[in-house]
Amino acid sequence: MKFLFIFIFISITSFAQVTNTYEISFPNAQHHEAQIKIQFNSIKSDTLSVRMSRTSPGRYAIHDFAKNIYQVIAHDSKGKKLSISRSNPHQWDISGHDGTVKISYILFANRGDGTYSQIDNTHAHLNIPATFMYAPSLANTPIEVTFHPREDLNWKIATQLKHLNNNTYFAPNLQYFMDSPTEISNHMVRSFDVINNNKKQTINFALHHTGNITDFDNYFEKVKKIVLEQKKVFGELPDFDFNEYTFLGCYIANASRDGMEHRNSTILTSTLELADGGKDRNIGTVSHEFFHSWNVERIRPKTLEPFNFEDANMSGELWFAEGFTSYYTNLILCRAKIITPEQYIKSIVRTFNYVWNSPARQYYNPIEMSYQAPFVDAATSVDPVNRENTFISYYSYGSVLGLALDLSLREQKLNLDDYMKLVWNTYGKVEKPYSITDLHTSLNQYAGNDFGDNFFNNYIYKSEMPDYKSLLASMGVTLHQDQTKAFIGSISANKINSNPHKGTPFYNAGLQAGDVIISINNQILDDETTVNEYIKKLSPKTKITLTYKRFGKNIETEVTLDSDPKYDLTLFENNNHKVKKAILKNRNAWLHL
Question: Phi and psi (nearest 5°) for 515?
Fold first, then answer.
């Protein structure tokens, strides 16, 4: 999101430009409520329409935040109560004002993640679209917001908003305001400075947790390594607004696991405390979200600019925006020496199998998978869907394509880092939104027309897959299958919990989600003798007689087993293969060893 707010800020301080003002207090935090007051000024129209957002920056689905506000009351500047009408579930139309409208309402909030807000006696975790009403007609008007922390709970404020004085903060316009999550709690803060293009930028980490100082200090050392390693990819940090970037960490039992990027901050939530495995299991989210400071927040698709708060945001570029970011997530951890090369290679396996073995590629290419985001990105529905067969996450799809592009470029004595630098300098640094055609053109510019056209024509506009076996071998990594292992399909214990993948033995035999396997070859199954335990004894191509229960009836069918489609990845040396010096050199350059 591009915000020309420095000029606006100077204008405000110099010429007392009109602002809209917000206040929020938490007298009933124990019951997850906040009291909110808003004053909209200099209204030109007879009727002021105010809304609650239906979306949140970084998310691509509908969330309908209006459902959690109530007791909405409006007055004019003199205290006269104003008439409110409702034209749709998300909007309040206020008439009879005198150029000023003062609104108050109660917010209920009890989900602590990257999309929603949560208020209780531990904190006020505020995602702005889930918290505050806004007036679309005043989207360019600056905003001042005053938070009233619970002093009895030792709450402090952490946010990317510009601090003005006391507990009052500033946003240059609606887009920046909505993109500025705020954590109000008794949190700890750690900071370090990075010299970037001869200018000091401060990286802050505000952590709300119940752990000790030592755990946080050790964790923050890892965060520093990630920041500096990612800086190497692009050659510089983004020019953070107000010269600060803030991680908003919330590692508490009542949070929900999530991560959400914003222009100068990110939300990191987890139920895992640092002392209980969080130091290792939460750090990947730090890597992913900080990479978004470049890729998504500034290297930004045209389809997400400006962000739409009234409808779902559909983008065909998420395989790059989210997927390539996912590729770098663990690669950066390896380069920063937070995980080992072997751990990194193992981290690829699950994602690779998910993408490679999915039947969904026959339906959609990566662009079209990205279009599905409004249906899958924390979206909810009650009707059954067939995504096991029709959808591959653009995070995962883009991640394995990022791997293939990086290794393919390295065969040409090039690399993905330098391609990302080119995209950064062409689009991100100057904040010029890009299209898929722009990405294609940039790859042609960097690696040549033949290379760029081949990659986009086969793997982006189509859904073919690169030769991963050869590409990985060039880095001393073996991609292999165990063709002797029998396979029947995905099953938990003896129940099929999801739609069988097209082409698997279960699918071919007509089994469905919800079916319970009772016996195989007349042997009754139980907790010890499960389907998978029984199949282990058999070979691929074996025919078995299977009895299953559906809708209270026992049905018998014949199933032909297949070979296990899963792949594994291992370093050459772990398979007793000698690693040639040239290959080891390639790997060292890739992983920065």
Answer: -70, 140
DSSP characters for 177-229? HHT--EEEES-EEEEEEEEETTEEEEEEEEEEESS-HHHHHHHHHHHHHHHHH
Three-class SS of residue 68? helix
Grouping H, G, I as helix, E, B as strand and the rest as coil, residue 233 is helix
Which residue type does 471 have?
L
Looking at the DSSP bridge assignments, the partners of residue 38 are 22, 103
What is the arrangement of strands in the sheet containing 83-88, beginning at the earlier edge strand? 47-51, 91-95, 83-88
The answer to whether the peptide bond before residue 306 is cis (omega within 30 degrees of 0) is: yes
| pLDDT at res. 13 | 45
d(CA 525, CA 168) in angstroms, rounded, equals 65
User: Tokens representing 560?
Assistant: 């032909």
Closest Cα partner for 300 from 431, 396, 187? Answer: 431
Give the DSSP letter string of 144-179. Answer: EEEEE--GGGT-EEEESSEEEETTEEEESSHHHHHT
- CA distances to 124, 147, 237, 355 from 114, rounded to whole Å, are 13, 19, 23, 26
Question: What's 108-122 look like in SS3?
Answer: ECECECCCCCEECCC
Q: What is the pLDDT of residues 135-168, one digit of tens each?
A: 999 999 999 999 999 999 999 999 999 999 999 9
- What pLDDT digit, counting tens, does each position of 376-399 carry? 999 988 999 999 999 999 999 999
DSSP summary character for residue 578: P
Length of the chain: 593
Closest CA to 328 of 288, 278, 357, 292: 288
Q: Are strands 199-209 and 188-196 parallel, antiparallel or unpaired?
A: antiparallel
Shortest CA distance to 146 belongs to which of 136, 135, 161, 133? Answer: 161
d(CA 56, CA 255): 18
Neighbour tally for 497: CB within 10 Å: 11
Between CA 347 and CA 344 the distance in angstroms is: 5
The 8-class DSSP code of residue 151 comes to G
Give the number of other CB atoms < 10 A from CB of residue 536: 10
